[in-house]
Every structure is written in C-alpha cells, then in structure tokens.
Design brief:
The radius of gyration is 15 Å and the shape is flat. By secondary structure, the protein is mainly α. It contains three helices and no strands. It has one domain. Helix 1 packs antiparallel against helix 2 and helix 2 packs antiparallel against helix 3.
Amino acid sequence: VAAVLLLLGVRLAQRGSTGWSRGVLLLVAVQIGLGIANVLLHLPVPLAVAHNAVAALLLMTLVSLLVLSRPHRERLVFRR
C-alpha cells in the first residue's frame, strides 16, 4: 500500500499538483514512521492513537483527491 501511495505522490508532482503531492508523501512518511515506532516500542497508546489519526488524515486526503479527479459533470452536488 505504501508503495502505491508513494507512486501516487510522485505522479501528482509530475502533473504539477505539488501541494497534494507533498501532502500525500508527508502523510505516508509519517504513517510509516509511526508504524515502525509502534512496533519497536510495543504499542504505547499515544503512538497508536497518532498512527490512527494519521491514517484518518490520509484517508480523507485520498477521498478528496478522488472527488477532485472526477470530471465536473460527474461530481456530487450537495444542496442545502
């Protein structure tokens, strides 16, 4: 999964979406670091919570990219 997300970050940078690219790459790097720290430190609760929080941010980022990648006419319209 990390390799695919890293590839996505590189592809975004190649297409000129440097902000999104940096965001994805940063979140993936932090997620990997927290995952390694969790294993080495035997799952301290604050690190486990941080790992889950970064996973949620990464998911929100990927969903946002998915929505933005759709053609305009196919985007969902939310009305009040």
